[in-house]
TrEMBL record:
Belongs to the NifD/NifK/NifE/NifN family. Pathway: Cofactor biosynthesis; Fe-Mo cofactor biosynthesis. Coiled coil: none annotated. This protein may play a role in the biosynthesis of the prosthetic group of nitrogenase (FeMo cofactor). It comes from the Bacteria. Residues 48-448 form the Nitrogenase/oxidoreductase component domain. It comes from Desulfoscipio geothermicus DSM 3669. This is Nitrogenase iron-molybdenum cofactor biosynthesis protein NifE. Keywords: Nitrogen fixation. GO terms for biological process: protein-containing complex assembly. One of its GO terms (molecular function) is nitrogenase activity.
Amino acid sequence: MINVSTAVPNDNLIVERQSSILVKGRQRKNQLKCDAESIAGCVSQRACVYCGARVVLNPVTDAIHLVHGPIGCASYTWDIRGSLSSGSELYRNSFSTDLKENDVIFGGEKKLARAIDELVEKYKAELVFVYSTCVVGVIGDDLEAVCKAAAQKHGIQVIPVQSSGFIGNKSAGYRAACDALLRLIEPPGGPRPLNNGRLVKSVNYLGDFNLAGEAWIIKDYLKRIGVEVNVVFTGDSNYRDLKKAPEASLNIMQCAGSMAYLARRMEVLYGIPSMRISFLGLEDTAASLRRIAAFFDDPEMMRRAEELIEQETAAVRPEIERYREKLSGKKAAIYVGGGFKAISLIKQFREIGIDVVMVGTQTGREEEYQTLHDISDDGTVILDDANPSELERFMIEQGAHLLVGGVKERPLAYKLGVAFIDHNHDRKHPLSGYVGAVNFAREVYSTVCSPVWKYARDVGGGLYAAGNKALPER
């Protein structure tokens, strides 16, 4: 067991959480416990199983997304995403069976069947996703049977998403979504590796949800070097494009946390290899383009990749350097969903002169935390599945000027009088690629160097002004 008094900056922690927190330079990297259930009695920043599934599947643009449960589950995720579509806007609707007390007592299967009938009649969709919720897990409705009957009745695909809350955490929701996608893309006769019909120099782009059009930006880069994007999982995707997924030559993964399981299964079922890439920041964007070109072993593709990297870097480097001069020496804290994103963010912050003093994730795996440990500076706090109290405490102790996170972390930052960067799914500006690197630097500058923090300090609000630590100078 780690001695908290020497391992972390403050010893007032829930005892069971000790093994999920370390400081680089004080413990070995393999001492961090991760990829485990949240501690009972500790309200973590993790989302639920249903939310994890909805994150992955919601961007399928022409599907009916039907939530079988109370209305609150559907309203929680209704149209809060920045995912853009080049076609259907049906995914912008969030439908619910709106289970009531009588449905909980007597069952909701008939209500679900009627809801599917009404929606298919009105919207003529070829695909319906039906999400289970916690209540459905309690009352035991047979989603599989209802969806199978509806599919036969209407001659379309009606796919149950087993996302009730008692099967795990957000990671379990990712897997439930991937299982649903595997059912969707399975060809007639069952999955099998393609001996012919494989699209040469084509990729499936996994783990990009086209937030603010990011998938379109990366598609353009890949087209310029000679690579075709077969289908994106799941940004700006549709039923017919997803069915073509087994034809690709390579799967590339931006969000490995949500898509690693799908990539592994597609390699087994269809013989499609995969690689992790990241288009966050200048360094990772260039490295990813080179790795993709190297996979296809095409000298012309590699030449075009180098040409693109040189042109795009030259175009944005002066602006990045201007922000770097203004931001050099500031300190950032990171708390995001997946470990691979956290790794890219550390590199991206270094590109603009900012030191990362705290980093954590909701669903990071052991190998990702080992990488985070290796690339972090001594003294960096590394933590898995944090709770609000820990985030606040370590941000104060480490003197962070900025927190990058999701929707649940925003109030924590503002409560402390600390700048905040939104890396969640409801943002409206792209952060991928070279244009995203500039947007990221600009957003960091505008929030860290905002004059509002002077007034927060004058008013005396937030924990910094409450005697814990002086608010860092901007």
